Amino acid sequence: MPYKIIDKCRFCYTCISVCPAEAIKESYPIFEIDQDLCNDCGLCYEVCRHGAIKKIDEKQTGTLD
Q1: Which of 14, 41, 50, 51 has its Cβ near the most Cβ atoms within 10 Å?
Q2: Contact call for residues 39 and 48 (beta carbons, < 8 A)
Q3: What's the N-to-C CA distance of the chain in angstroms?
Q4: Longest C-alpha distance within the chain, in Å?
């Protein structure tokens, strides 16, 4: 299941440091996950202490869980 960074992002770089696919990029106003590079491992989701990374439910046309 793909992931998305939402506006709770605090630029702590924790997600960037754990991403094995280097899919998370610095961006403004929040970091972004390149869906073409993301391997859906979920490490970013697990380490985000701000609750800024959400799973995208593809079955419901891209809504967040």
Answers
A1: 14
A2: no
A3: 10
A4: 31
Alpha carbons 43 and 11: distance in angstroms, whole number: 16
Tokens 């869906």 belong to which residue? 35
3-state secondary structure of 53: strand
Q: Which two tokens stand for residue 51?
A: 């609750």
- List, for residues 4-62, the tens digit of each pLDDT value: 999 999 999 999 999 999 999 999 889 999 999 999 999 999 999 999 999 988 665 45
**Which CA distances in Å does 52 have to 1, 2, 5, 45?**
16, 14, 5, 8
Q: How far apart are CA 45 and CA 55, in angstroms?
A: 8
